[in-house]
Amino acid sequence: MDFTKKSVNEIKTSGDLFPPDFLWGGAVAANQIEGAYLEDGKGLSVSDVLSDGIFGQILDKPDGEYLKHQAIDFYHRYPEDIALFAEMGFRTLRTSIAWTRIFPNGDEAIPNEAGLEFYDRLFDELLKYGIQPLVTLSHYEMPLGLVHKYGGWSNREVITLFERFSRVVFDRYGDKVKYWLTFNEINMMLHGPFIAGGIYPDQATEQVTYQAIHHQFVASALAVKACHEIIPDAQIGCMIAGGPMYPLTPKPEDVLEAMRKDRENFFFADVQVKGKYPGYILRYFRESNIDLDITEEDLKTLKHTVDFISFSYYMSYCATTDPELNEQSRGNIMSAVKNPYLSASEWGWSIDPKGLLYTLNQFYDRYEKPLFIVENGLGAIDVPNEKGIVEDSYRIDYIREHLVQVAEAIQDGVEVMGYTSWGCIDIVSNSTGEMRKRYGFIYVDRHDDLSGTFERTRKKSFNWYKEVIATNGKIITE
Predict the structure, then answer these.
(1) What whole-number percentage of the chain has pLDDT above 90?
(2) Where residue 126 sits, what CATH number does that domain have?
(3) Catalytic positions (predicted)?
(4) I want to staple 85 with a disulfide (CB 3.0 to 4.6 A). Which of 90, 249, 431, 453 is the partner?
(5) Is 58 exposed, middle or buried (0-12, 13-18, 19+ CB in 10 A)?
(6) CA 117, CA 4: separation in Å to the nearest integer?
(7) Are 242 and 311 a contacting pair, CB within 8 Å?
């Protein structure tokens, strides 16, 4: 890991590392934590029919018991978990509302009251401890009914259904939730069209995929408009899967390839922050014979832009025009070439704290909008010791090194709203559909073979992160 004492010492002399109102906390998603996948009127979502993570087999309907169906049983145990988050001093918790708890099939005229009541209880429990909910409207939880009946986000009618869902939850929770996100990692439509957009991989041509993306842009803008109307004191942002693309070599072709791949992410923020399609993507559409149905009303709607930009950051990538290296990289996440200068996690994800500094500056230089790091963390195999405690010093090191780079960005003048560590309690991995890939400060006795007591245990990182929050980040310099 590339972390130097010089960097720490430079920051030490500059006063406060983080703003006094910095939103420290953690992040989870309904489909990875709640369980109770058919309780209280909930319908099936795209996540419920994936047998093995984001790229797993897609089932017509669940034909067995899968980890996500019960997950870590947060649906029934949330008071216990929130008490632990409060013990750590969380100022915010990022979670999502499962669309299928509110509209089980996605297109009902009347929302499911039992689902609405669950989130009332959840948000009330958070607010009891002074924890601000940060809520994602759509986090890989599209109703399966909309996939089967409409073809997912490829169908324009889904825009209206999403707007209805958004307005219902804004009306219901407007006095409780002041921070919102529209679509989680919206750019993952290019990589996981079923989980991100309800489109089967064999149907995800570029024409279909980009049309679905356009529908999500319009739906996101309508949600922003509704949020501003219904909860004028709230803020609503977009959410991007972040991570810079480095040229593998200084060869001009590699530099331009890195720019092109970076734009695959920037494109999604450009539309939601600037309210219009950038010229480079319009050129790509022309040259690729992609002809989208974009109405004049759509273009007006896109002018309703987000208040801030949130993003996930786990790794950086390398780009090259070398065909042999690109062929070897197929199957890696986003099919990126490995960086020979970086170490990797147990799942092969490059570890690059300085890439977070680079990403923060990239986004801020381009948009000059507040930024929120809503996912970052280390997925690892955690094994409790003879006392039942996970001694996860490796996780502490990982997060500390990334937080140092956040502090560096703040010194650069980047406006960073907060940091929510991903999977702050062990959850089912979205990428692999397993429990053994753990991110949390809290160990959950739940395993891939569906065994376990669901008992919660504080890891070593629990008390460390508690101290990070209590000192407003000062402990990262020690």
Answers:
(1) 85
(2) 3.20.20.80
(3) 375 (nucleophile)
(4) 90
(5) middle
(6) 49
(7) yes
Reported as a single tens digit per residue, the pLDDT across 98-152 is 999 999 999 999 999 999 999 999 999 999 999 999 999 999 999 999 999 999 9
Count of structural domains, the chain: 1
Domain span at residue 70?
Answer: 5-473
Q: Which amino acid is at 227?
A: C
Contact (Cβ atoms closer than 8 angstroms) between residue 91 and residue 418 = yes
Taking the mean position of all CA atoms in its chain, how far away is CA 179? 14
Please give the pLDDT value at position 15: 64
Cα–Cα distance measured from residue 463 to residue 458, given in angstroms and rounded to the nearest whole number: 8
Phi-psi domain of 23 (left: phi exceeds 0; alpha: psi -120 through 50; beta: other): beta
- Nearest alpha carbon to residue 146 among 111, 194, 192, 113: 194
- At residue 58, what are phi and psi to the nearest 5 degrees? -95, 120
- Answer whether 354's CB lies under 8 Å from 377's CB: no
Q: Identify whether the C-beta of residue 100 lies closer than 8 Å to the C-beta of residue 141.
A: yes
Amino acid at 397: D
222 alpha carbon, distance to own chain's centre: 20
pLDDT attached to residue 326: 77
In a 3-state reduction of DSSP, which class is residue 46? coil
Do residues 34 and 75 make contact, with C-beta atoms less than 8 angstroms apart? Answer: yes
Please list the active-site residues.
375
List, in sequence order, every beta strand (DSSP E) within 337-380. Answer: 371-375
* Digit-coded pLDDT (tens) for 325-350: 877 766 555 557 889 999 988 888 89
**Residues in CB range of 206: below 8 A, 6 or more apart:** 288, 290
Q: Strand 235-241 and strand 179-183: pairing? A: parallel
Domain assignment present for 478 = no
Instruction: Find all residues with CB under 8 Å of 261, minimum gap 6, and list them.
Output: 245, 317, 319
In a domain? residue 34: yes
| Cα dihedral across residues 449, 455, 460, 465: positive or negative | positive
Q: Does 257 reside within a domain?
A: yes
List, in sequence order, every residue forming a beta bridge with 419; answer none if it has no partner: 24, 373
Mean of the per-residue pLDDT values for the chain? 93
CA 430 to chain centre: 10
User: pLDDT tens digit string along 45-103?
Assistant: 999 998 776 767 787 777 667 888 999 999 999 999 999 999 999 999 999 999 999 99
CA distances from 460 to 148, 400, 436, 450, 477 (A): 45, 14, 17, 25, 18
Q: To which residue do tokens 């010791």 refer?
A: 385
d(CA 212, CA 104): 21
Q: List residues bridging with 337 in a β-sheet.
A: 318
What is the end-to-end Cα distance of the chain in Å, rounded?
17
